[in-house]
Amino acid sequence: MYQVKTFNAIAKSGLETFSDDFKINQSDDPDAYLIRSVNLLQEKFPESLKTIVRCGVGYNNVPLDKATEQGIAVFNTPGSNANAVKELVISLMIATARNLFAANQYSNIHSEADISQRTEKDKTKFNGTELAGKRLAVIGLGNVGSRVANAALALGMKVIGYDPFLSSNAAWRIDNQVKRANSIRRAVKNADFVTVHVPKNQDTIGLISTTELTAMKDQAVLFNYSRIGIVDNKAVLKAIQEGKISHYCTDFGEPIIADQKNITITPHIGGSTLEAESNGAVQGADTVMNYLESGDTTNSVNLPNMKVPFEAPYRVTVIHKNVPNMVGQIATKMADREINIENMSNAAKGSTAYTVVDVNSIDGENGQNLIRSLNKIPEVHRVRIIEHQ
């Protein structure tokens, strides 16, 4: 029996995904946390905790280094809110192209009983453009960017993408009509619209700043629905004020861009739909079950992604530092206890490694002795023995 503790409001569809082997919020010593936006940076984790799963994409509310040191696997649910973000970006693209924000403001001010003549005279001020035939640059072609690119093609737009880290799985999702650029500057050069969809890390902070804005076509429209800091808001404000950029839409407000003309800020609602919350909760529940029952680390953000077929009666998993001779030490400890290895897999992610060993037989006492022996290795963070269900 596994215990799961939830934080925030997890969609009912996700909670109903758990099998009868999982109990929800019935123990103070849970095996798993299922979370959304709760801040865990100062949280003291119980020794029982084996995994934290974030129902969403961002995970800056989880202390990865501390979790790894305690042998806790951390996951997110990439793609669960991708369609929601895509639809919002497309809707804002249409709104900016048709000057809907200015038109709405005009209508709110001029609300006399009979304004038909004035409206007929003034409506040309809000003449917009159609998206068909316009050029869109998509920076980052992952779960969200690929969907935006394909949707823009369906609207008759010309699309060019830039993503030096494009995975083979993501590449399959992208329509072959999407052209590829080998630099951001080339991607944005002739684009009428530029949208950014990249993860936030040391390489992407300030990804779009003065140099990239200068390279853009005059009067281009810019969207940031990735993370705050990826677009340099100070540089964007200057570009807006100088007339270089015609409009900026972002999900991440800060004082410098608040109440500014031609800047539209939404309150971090890109992935906030009922469907996205349900998708994230269901995917999160599946992730908890897969990791606890098989050791599967697909979509882990602090461990290497490993999905090893579980065909033996037992599995030993070891989270450890990525240093030489760890696999040898693990194998030796098992040989000392006459445990025959059926299959062994190992992979690393940065300074952390994960080893999965399948065995045919390991009785209770011998298993506990093995766990104690492996835990004595200074570089080992956590050892688990999983029985095949």
Automatic annotation (TrEMBL):
UniProt KW keywords: NAD, Oxidoreductase
An annotated Gene Ontology molecular function: NAD binding
Superkingdom in the source lineage: Bacteria
Metabolic or biological pathway: Amino-acid biosynthesis; L-serine biosynthesis; L-serine from 3-phospho-D-glycerate: step 1/3
Catalytic activity, EC: 1.1.1.399, 1.1.1.95
Keyword field contains Oxidoreductase: yes
Swiss-Prot/TrEMBL catalytic activity: (2R)-3-phosphoglycerate + NAD(+) = 3-phosphooxypyruvate + NADH + H(+); (R)-2-hydroxyglutarate + NAD(+) = 2-oxoglutarate + NADH + H(+)
Domain ACT: 315-388
Assigned protein family: Belongs to the D-isomer specific 2-hydroxyacid dehydrogenase family.
PANTHER family: FORMATE DEHYDROGENASE 1, HYDROXYPYRUVATE REDUCTASE
Function noted in UniProt: Catalyzes the reversible oxidation of 3-phospho-D-glycerate to 3-phosphonooxypyruvate, the first step of the phosphorylated L-serine biosynthesis pathway. Also catalyzes the reversible oxidation of 2-hydroxyglutarate to 2-oxoglutarate.
Designated name of the protein: D-3-phosphoglycerate dehydrogenase
Phylogenetic classification of the source organism: Bacteria, Bacillati, Bacillota, Bacilli, Lactobacillales
